[in-house]
């Protein structure tokens, strides 16, 4: 009987603690500690973002400065570059005009030499034989009927993204194309061939230097016209050749232009006379010093010298 009041007191104390615990679930100290941790976590992140923005700003300023300096340098050097290029172009045109004038003078002098020679060798077999040889070697003007093979570059392809023309053009005329057509005409037995007025000979060269095609070191540009003087059946024979068929296939594939036309009354000028080179016998080596006198009674020795071998003639020829 005496233990009931104390039991009730313990139950009341326990219920007050539970009530207080459920009513205030978080201790103010924990809440304050959480707030401090949150503030401490934000400070490093804010500092990092500020540092990154500063570095990015410095990098942008440096790039802008470099671009400004480069632009100023380019704009300052552009007038000098344009002036130098214009000077070089003018020099090229002037030298080309001088070369053409000298070529005309050389042709006139060559005609005078031919007339004087024909007058000296009039009514002789040697004169006719000499004229035939000059025609074969391209050293005289030729007049007759023939054909003209015309080739034009295909238009450069356009980039569908940028709209600019591509630098690579598979339909562009190459030096080997002119070589193939010239060789085919020679094979058909033509009398004379020229490319854009440049007469071909047995030592002519057709090659590419940079972006230009050179015929005997003289540049030729599109459209390319290969003119040949030959028999009346030359056009049909050339059209039936494998070379003409291949170029017609190029027309359908690469859209380049290729045509063969009959032409009457063609005149082809003389080619530039080649520089002739002659074989020469090698010079004999200098004689060596004679040895001292032989002792008495010693058999005499006669020095023998191997005769110099005759020079081997060099094979002549050229590309057409």
From TrEMBL:
Pfam families: DUF881. The keyword DNA repair does not apply. The keyword Transmembrane helix applies. Keywords: Coiled coil, Membrane, Transmembrane, Transmembrane helix. Residues 276-320 are annotated as: Disordered. Residues 284-296 have a biased composition (Pro residues). The chain crosses the membrane at residues 55-74. InterPro entries: DUF881. Signal peptide: none annotated. Residues 92-119 form a coiled coil. This is Membrane protein. It comes from Planosporangium flavigriseum.
């Amino acid at each position: 009987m005496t233990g009931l009041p104390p039991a009730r007191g313990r139950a009341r104390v326990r219920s007050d603690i539970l009530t207080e615990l459920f009513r205030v679930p978080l201790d103010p100290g924990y809440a304050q500690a959480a707030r401090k941790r949150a503030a401490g976590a934000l400070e490093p992140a804010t500092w990092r973002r500020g540092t990154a923005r500063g570095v990015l700003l410095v990098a942008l300023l440096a790039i802008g400065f470099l671009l400004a300096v480069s632009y100023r340098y380019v704009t300052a050097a552009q007038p000098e570059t344009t002036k130098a290029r214009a000077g070089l172009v003018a020099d090229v045109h002037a030298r080309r005009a001088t070369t053409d004038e000298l070529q005309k003078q050389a042709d006139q002098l060559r005609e005078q030499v031919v007339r004087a020679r024909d007058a000296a060798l009039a009514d002789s077999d040697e004169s006719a034989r000499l004229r035939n040889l000059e025609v074969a070697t391209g050293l005289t003007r030729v007049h007759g009927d023939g054909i003209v093979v015309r080739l034009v570059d295909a238009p450069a392809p356009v980039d569908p993204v940028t709209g600019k023309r591509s630098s690579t053009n598979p339909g562009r005329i190459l030096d080997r194309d002119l070589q193939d057509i010239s060789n085919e005409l020679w094979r058909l037995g033509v009398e004379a061939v020229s490319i854009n007025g440049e007469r071909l000979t047995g030592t002519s060269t057709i090659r590419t230097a940079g972006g230009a095609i050179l015929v005997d070191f003289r540049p030729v540009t599109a459209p390319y016209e290969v003119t040949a003087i030959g028999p009346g059946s030359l056009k049909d024979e050339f059209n039936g050749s494998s070379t003409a068929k291949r170029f017609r296939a190029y027309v359908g594939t690469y859209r380049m232009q290729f045509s063969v036309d009959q032409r009457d009354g063609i005149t082809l000028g003389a080619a530039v006379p080649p520089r002739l080179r002659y074989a020469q016998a090698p010079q004999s080596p200098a004689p060596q010093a004679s040895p001292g006198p032989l002792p008495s009674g010693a058999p005499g020795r006669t020095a023998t010298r191997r005769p110099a071998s005759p020079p081997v003639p060099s094979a002549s020829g050229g590309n057409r």
